[in-house]
Backbone:
């Protein structure tokens, strides 16, 4: 029995009492840390770990936070990557979330001590950014905004057949609309629609005319679409609201994205309501934004469904900080110049080469992502390394997600913040060291 490995396994309570382990339990929770202790104890029983290595093994196995979500370095060249959480928040937005995470005055007027308007700061910031809007509303994503509009305005919704789109993960706009109880009145054909198609379809049961931006595809050839500026005058006097889902969240026109619709222009052209996402080109948290005529926004606000779709205090805080604070990361990435990217890539490649890793600077093509500007490539620069790096980089303690092209792993720097270049180098070198 003297050789029984179970006799050398440190007791659970003794390991949990070790100061660094106890501190981790206070930060992450006792049960999570205890599970890591038990896993390390089993390794001792299996002969894979010495008893003296239990505490270091426990600390190494613990996550950075109590959440299973891990920070990832986005080197894919896709600025708004849906699988990676879309827009990274700005430092100002992160600080605002932390400040709002405790008790806060989200719905209290501190002057009177009475209940106040919810998220007034974020709504004011939206209206300042989009002066063509009379009022604003925030729900939990753009699909929720569309569902709220369909439910609250009710009746029959007139929409072009070519705008009955499917977006990511098999999600279909017509399925969402029908699920609210609305009836769809499809007009035009897949490739062509006219103003008369819309006006002929409007009747006493029409709740709204919908325009949906086909964010992630383009139809070319013998096509005809009706823009908001053309449709709005034709609907004047009918009493039927014109609602435009513009998708990606540009507040105003952007010189790099001339064909991407924006909120200010769409409202100024005559839309009664515009809908968009807050976590795409706006660069903020996941949210659905509704802006437009004050009476229609108030109608949505008073509908019972709004209560189920409204956002929490942290989203309101992050949204306001995104709108009022410094330029968020997504817009910095969008505006990055190629010369600057090439300089960064050269420094990264040189650091990797100094560490014994073969690396080269190559031209690449980045994308907006998130369903935005599908035909607009962004010139970019990447660091090319051996193709074998792709998987181990994803599995590293600080995961790096690049992409494989022409037998190489490319690490595109347009989608990576400059402050993360050092972490990128460190992770690649660490992966390389495991092979030597």
Residues:
């Amino acid at each position: 029995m003297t050789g029984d490995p179970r006799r050398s396994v440190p007791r659970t309570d003794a390991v949990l009492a070790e100061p660094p382990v106890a501190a981790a339990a206070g930060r992450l929770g006792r049960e999570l840390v205890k599970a890591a202790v038990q896993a390390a104890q089993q390794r001792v029983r299996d002969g894979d770990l010495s008893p003296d290595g239990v505490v270091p093994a426990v600390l190494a196995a613990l996550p950075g936070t109590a959440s299973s979500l891990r920070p990832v370095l986005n080197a894919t060249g896709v600025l708004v990557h849906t699988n990676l959480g879309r827009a990274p928040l700005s430092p100002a937005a992160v600080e605002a979330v932390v400040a709002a995470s405790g008790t806060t005055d989200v719905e209290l007027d501190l002057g009177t001590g009475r209940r106040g308007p919810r998220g007034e700061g974020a709504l004011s910031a939206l209206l300042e950014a989009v002066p063509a809007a009379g009022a604003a509303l925030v729900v939990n994503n753009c699909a929720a905004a569309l569902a709220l509009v369909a439910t609250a305005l009710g009746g029959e919704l007139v929409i072009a057949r070519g705008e009955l789109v499917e977006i990511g993960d098999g999600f279909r706009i017509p399925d969402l609309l029908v699920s609210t109880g609305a009836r769809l009145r499809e007009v035009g054909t897949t490739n062509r629609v006219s103003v008369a198609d819309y006006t002929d379809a409007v009747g006493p049961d029409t709740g709204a005319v919908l325009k949906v931006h086909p964010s992630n595809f383009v139809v070319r050839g013998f096509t005809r679409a009706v823009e908001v500026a053309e449709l709005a005058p034709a609907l004047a006097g009918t009493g039927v609201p014109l609602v435009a889902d513009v998708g990606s969240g540009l507040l105003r026109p952007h010189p790099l994205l001339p064909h991407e619709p924006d909120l200010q222009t769409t409202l100024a052209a005559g839309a009664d309501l515009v809908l968009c996402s807050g976590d795409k080109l706006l660069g903020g948290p996941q949210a659905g934004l509704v802006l437009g005529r004050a009476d229609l926004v108030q109608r949505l606000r008073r509908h019972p469904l709004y209560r189920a779709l409204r956002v929490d205090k942290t989203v309101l805080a992050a949204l306001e900080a995104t709108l009022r604070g410094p330029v968020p990361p997504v817009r910095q990435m969008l505006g990055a110049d190629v010369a600057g990217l090439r300089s960064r890539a050269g420094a990264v490649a040189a650091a990797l080469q100094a560490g014994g890793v073969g690396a080269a600077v190559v031209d690449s093509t980045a994308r907006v992502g998130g369903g935005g500007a599908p035909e607009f490539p962004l010139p970019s620069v990447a660091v090319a390394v051996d193709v074998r790096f792709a998987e181990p980089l994803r599995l590293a303690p600080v995961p790096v997600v690049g992409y494989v092209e022409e037998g190489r792993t490319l690490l595109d720097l347009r989608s990576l913040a400059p402050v993360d270049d050092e972490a990128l180098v460190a992770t690649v070198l660490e992966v390389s060291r495991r092979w030597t």
User: Anything to note?
Assistant: DSSP finds 18 helices and 16 strands in the chain. The chain has a mean pLDDT of 92.
